[in-house]
Amino acid sequence: MNGTKGGRGRRIVLWRHGQTAWNLERRFQGTTDIELTEAGVEQARRAARLLAALQPDAIIASDLQRAARTAAELSAVTRLDVTHDEALRETYAGAWQGLTHEEIVAQYAEQYAAWKRGEPVRRGGGELETEVADRAAPVVQLAADKLPDGGTLVVVSHGGTIRTTIGRLLGLEPHHWEGLGGLSNCCWSVLGEGARGWRLLEHNAGTLPEPVLGDDD
């Protein structure tokens, strides 16, 4: 889905939600609707102040409360409305949801190992990563298509969904999506529009992107 209209200079900021209690417990959340901790709210407020400096034109977010509350902090600073979309929810992982990392490895060792090898796996009987990209990436692309030239879209979502969306928008094969690595709570990745489509400018960032000055600009 690298189908941008080259040269318009748009930017997509994909922002992971703040900390939850289940994050601290390394418990798989998936589509379970877990709220932010007090620390998570503070993370969102700090990040929102930074991201507001990018002067975003639009904000879209998962409707799960951990993402919606994170997005609300940026909305409060920018006065932009947030469009919520369930297509931006985290991966549904069936029986894995609510289990800790250690419990998943112990109870679903073969399934977990296959997933880490990059094989298409319905973790806990849930969604494939490609199915997550199928629902999330078009929503992000459509919102980006509505931006003005040079405009910025902020997408507030979840670690797994953001990774698969980035992979799809960059045109990477699904086997390579895991190579993007994870996002820390309230950190973000930035896609910029180049002549040949989207390219990754920042990944797992917690500070504002700096211009690239050099031969590859």
Give a written overview of the molecule:
The chain is of the alpha/beta class and 217 residues long. Helices cover 35% and strands 16% of the residues. It has seven helices and six strands. A six-stranded mixed β-sheet has the order 3-2-4-1-5-6, with helices on both faces. The longest helix is centred in the middle third of the chain and has 17 residues, at 129-145.
Instruction: Tell the overall outline.
Output: globular
Strand order of the largest sheet: 3-2-4-1-5-6
* Unreliably modeled segments: none
Strand content: 15-25%
Instruction: Characterize the main sheet.
Output: 6 strands, mixed
C-alpha Rg (nearest Å): 17 Å
The total strand number stands at: 6
* Mean pLDDT rating: 92
Query: Helical element count?
Result: 7
What is the share of helical residues?
25-40%
Distance between the termini: 23 Å
Helix and strand element order: EHHEHEHHHEHEE
Content-based structural category: alpha/beta
Descriptive keywords:
7 helices; alpha/beta; 217 residues; globular
What's the gist of this structure?
The chain is α/β, with parallel strands linked by helices and 217 residues long.
Secondary structure elements and pairings:
Elements: E1 11-16, H1 21-24, H2 38-52, E2 58-61, H3 65-78, E3 82-84, H4 101-107, H5 109-116, H6 129-145, E4 152-157, H7 159-170, E5 188-194, E6 197-205
Parallel strand pairs: 1-4, 2-3, 2-4
Antiparallel strand pairs: 1-5, 5-6
Helix pairs in contact: 2-3, 4-5, 6-7
